Amino acid sequence: MAGGKETPRQKMIGILYLVLLGLVALNVSDSVLDAFKNLATSLGTSTQNTQASIDNMFSAFRETKLKDEPERAKPILAKAEQASLLANNLAAHVDSLQALLTDAGGGESTSTGDLKNRGSTDISFRLMVREKRAERLRELINETREKLLEISNNEVGFSLDAQDPPPRAGIRKSWEQANFGDGIPLTAAITSLEKIKADVKNAEAAVVKHIFGEMDMAVVNLDRFAAVAVAPSSYIIQGQPYTAKVFLTAYDSKSNPEITVGGNALPVADGQGTYSVNTSSEGVYNWTGVIRVKQTDGTIKEYQTEPQTYQVARPSAVVSPDAMNVLYIGLDNPISVSAPGIPKESLAVSGQGVSVSGSGGKYVARVTQPGTARINVSARIGEQTQSLGSTEFRVKRIPKPQAKVAGRSGGAVAAAQIRGQNRIFAGLDDFEFDAKFNISRFSMLIQKPRVDPMGPYQGTNGTFSEPMQNALSSVTPGSFVFFYNIIAVGPDGLQQELDPISFRVN
């Protein structure tokens, strides 16, 4: 289950849950089962607290907003209640599954406070996977997620999700197998359901809070909607007039707001102001528009446009790479295109050996094959389309990154520093782009003084496994730590082996 904003406590619980699932693959000791029981209890407490918060939000809304502005509040309350109904239906389904597993597990043991058959590794597999209950649960989770996102206009993030986990050690597992499959103790399956219920309530709380927040938004009576047209041209040929419309995307045509530029009022008609100046001299000019609108409650709301710039100049095409005369495979290469004296809106940018997207002088170029690429610029001038020139670029692959641990690529390191590490990274120093690399797998070997080597240990996703961290915590001065067989994948999708790195512990 991934995606969305979580509190630090929720993140900690989620991490602990994943750690415990990992430990299940190693052993099913009483200490691990106790940890699952404690985690389930903590999740249950968190769910109760979240439910109390949701109840308080509904109570406060009904006591204040619904009484003060019932006409506006009723549809908002109905929308929030719809979100709660979706979440409660899913939570009730999870409760029924918990009851089923609890009954199959023999009920509660007085000695452990947990299920009598808590260590059973076949009950959840039989009831949840083999009998397809986990498959139905997954469908219900994802259906609920999509409906909550739709209700909130995709403006709220939350962790309620049921996607297959990434493969571990080359083995792929479905979401159903990872949470309820063969080898999963019964108490771990119960904890999985408790976590789903916590995620449901966290999602409900986030969506309800977002919906109720709509009530506090200022209101303007909007009866017309139109696309913003700021200025038809930002580059003007000397002698041409410069004209710009200043208006809201959605506006009230029955009232004329006060619109000013530089403190001077503009003529307003149908809610729109027109700004027009002469362009007899070359140069760069800036202006900002201010719109003051009276709202339904009588208050005045002021809106300010983004700073606008236009240049009066004579007509030549300019194509300038934002980062050297090179395009890199797999990256969004920023390209600036301008033609003095010609509006940016009139420019047409195309490419050979490269795809180009964007507008307004700022474009993104993407390439797939090494070699060369050419970007062409043309413009609509009058009734004709005229070529303004082209520029050739070299196309390269992203340089091979360097592996790093503790921000370093080897050398002497303090024992305390290397002991505290838990990840290996890959990156490029002094590279013009923010190219991100993911380490898919790597190996580690430790040579301590006068003892046999420790390892090799295998890691995935750039994270040190628990055996790795245990081994690192034991290094002493004079030890050597080696990282090798480091495989990284960059934005271009190319999988490559990085140079090994080694550390001498002081």
UniProtKB/TrEMBL annotation:
Domain Gliding motility-associated protein GldM C-terminal: 399-506
Gliding motility-associated protein GldM first immunoglobulin-like domain span: 218-313
Origin superkingdom: Bacteria
Coiled coil: 127-154
Domain Gliding motility-associated protein GldM N-terminal: 32-212
Record keywords: Coiled coil
Cross-referenced InterPro entries: GldM_Ig-like-1, GldM_Ig-like-2, Motility-assoc_prot_GldM, Motility-assoc_prot_GldM_C, Motility-assoc_prot_GldM_N
Domain Gliding motility-associated protein GldM second immunoglobulin-like: start-end pairs: 316-396
NCBIfam families linked to this entry: GldM_gliding (TIGR03517)
Protein name: Gliding motility-associated protein GldM
